[in-house]
Amino acid sequence: MESLPTGAEKRARVREMFDAIAPRYDLINRLMTFGLDKHWRQRTIKLLDLKTPALVADVGCGTGDLSRVLTGRGYDAVGIDMSLGMLKAGQPVAAPVCLADAAMLPFGDASLDGAVSGFALRNFAELVAVVVELARVVRPGGRIALLEVSQPEIPLLKAGHSIWFNHVVPRIGSLLSDKAAYRYLPRSVAYLPRYGDLASMLGDAGFTAMRRDLLSGGLVQVITATRSGTSRSSRHQVVLVEGSA
Description:
Layout: H1 7-21, H2 25-33, H3 36-48, E1 55-59, H4 65-72, E2 76-81, H5 84-89, E3 97-99, E4 112-118, H6 127-137, E5 138-149, H7 155-176, H8 179-187, H9 195-205, E6 207-215, E7 220-227, E8 238-240
Parallel strand pairs: 1-2, 1-4, 2-3, 4-5, 6-8
Antiparallel strand pairs: 5-7, 6-7
Helix pairs in contact: 3-4, 7-8
C-alpha cells in the first residue's frame, strides 16, 4: 500500500484532492454520514461556548458548512481554506472567506474570539504549526472547537464503522466523485494524534481546560480548549455524550 505523504507533498496533494472533489463534496458527506454531519456541526458550535456576537475563524472551512452554522447562531464568521475549488463550491457564502494556509493564518495576534475546524486536523501538513497559529490569533479567554472523526469503542459499532468507513465510503466516492480521494480519506485517519498527544500539543501552545466530547457513540469527537492568558497548565477530560444522534 502506498505510504501517506508528508510535508510539502502532503500539502500539495491535499489541495489537489479537495479541488477535485469539491463539486460533490457536500452531497457525499450527507450520504456517507446519513445526514449526521449537520448535527455534529451544530454540537461543535454549541461546545465552542462563546457569547455572541464574537469573531470566529472557520479554519479549513471547505464549502462553509461550519461558517453557516456560526452565522446562523449570531457569530461573525470568517472562513479560510487552501483549496480554491472548495471555496468556489461553497458560493454563495454566509461569511467572508480567504484563500490561505492554516499554518500561516492571515489574522493579527489575539484578534479572534475563537476558532473552529471541521474534519480538517488530519489534512493539515503541519499540525503543530497550526495549533501554534491558533494560539497566536485567539485572544486570552477565547475558545476553540475542533471536530474530527474518531473510532467507536463498542465492538459491534466499531466493526460496522470499519466496514462502512473503509470499504463502503470509498465505493460511494468512486461512483460519485474521485476514486483516489475517497480511498485516501479513510487512510488519512492515521495522521490523527491520540487525544492525549493532541491535548499536550494544545497545552504547550498556550491552551488550557482541554476537553474531548465523543458524539454518536464515538463516531466523531469534538476537542475544545480555552486560550490561557498566563498559565499553560492543562486539564484533560474525556466526556461521552449520551444520547447524541
